Amino acid sequence: MTLEKLTPSRHSPSRRRYDDACGTAHALDLIGERWALLVMRELMLGPKRFSEIRADLPGISANTLTQRLEGLEATGLVVRRRLPPPASAQVYELTQWGYEAEPIIQTMGRWATRSPAHDPTMPLSATSLMMSFRTMGDPARMAGFCARIGFSIGEETFLVRISSRGVDVERAPIAGAEVVFAGAATAIAGAVYGGVPVAELEEEGALEVKGDRTLAERFTALFPLPPKAGAHP
Prior knowledge:
By secondary structure, the protein is an alpha+beta fold. The protein is built from 11 helices and 7 strands.
């Protein structure tokens, strides 16, 4: 018995598809194009302008970004809207269904960090760094830890709240944070994931830490990378 196709395809005829009924295959139809999942990652903390997305994905061309955004819109994962005055700028935003992809990104991130080829010192965006805190936090190390940590990265500010409920991240003013890290995302990642002492990064001028320094040191130890996968099973 042949099942009827219930809905017409919204994909462009030129787009490659797997034509496979498996949910995993269809997931790759939706987000498997190069850059698509990273575009979604950059929108996980809220809407962004086209220029902001491109700035955070420096390897993508304007043409490719346009194509990926159009594809994600066509599949119902992204919408575009215009901000009210005085901004009146067009932004791209994930739909509710689009936000549901966060666990997929988190699982892939945790899995891939076990690769012997993974290099935590490579460039990454501010949003990617913030997402990593939601992904890599160790519940055992965070037990009893409750704090508001601020981050000033370029023109963006983020507030990370850690409590018994886990890690909450938002783009927000950092007033009221008990400690603030100011610097490039790569410098902060160096302290958290690369094992570089905070004092050393400060001496180099790559990082500035304001507030409770003991809290800052404790924070950098909350996100251990998993052990690398062996070459053999």
